[in-house]
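It would be a great kindness if you could assist me with a short task in structural biology. The full record is reproduced below for your convenience:
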Amino acid sequence: MHAMKLSAAILALLLPLGGCKLVPTDKPDAEQAEAQTDEARMAAYADENWSDKVLPVIAENTVNYETLQQALAAGVDSAGAEYGLRPDGEANPWNFVVEGEGTVTEAKLDSRAARMQVDMTGDGEPDVTLQIGPIIRGTALRDAMPFITFTDFRDQIEFAKLARAMNEKAHAGLDIPEGDVVGKTVAFTGVFTLRSLDEEPEIVPTVIEVSP
């Protein structure tokens, strides 16, 4: 009789466990990634690839501004074939990594879309615009990277957010000047998209240095 009572007591304790569900506290990496927002995942992608992949591509493909201008005299496609970068497909515009030095003719540094216009030829007229950000237009930095392929991403929305994340990463690494910089000399390295010779380059800089 004692043994039967003991067995019944044990059974009573075990029965509630049948309705319990064990919930793991840690999600697998894939599920954690899925739970992140697009913005967070693309920001992480930019961070992970910036030093090992993005900066080396920039270093290996940088061309001097004057040299590029001479090449562009023969046409955008001709210059692109020699110095440019673009995603697969002839319909895609060329992107160029350029370095140069010029005089700041106009600056708007107190804006979320901060920028500087720069005279590169000494005639007093602006030739390029440096997009300081943090709001930066365009996808040049993303599209210049040969290791980035659209089909590796979920859709156009995610791909667009990657471009924004890379622009924000570039902005975060800039030594942004303060005060009045008009008339000062600025040296820069950056990336821009060029569709035609009529366009003024809007450069996404990865380096800017303003002389005191």
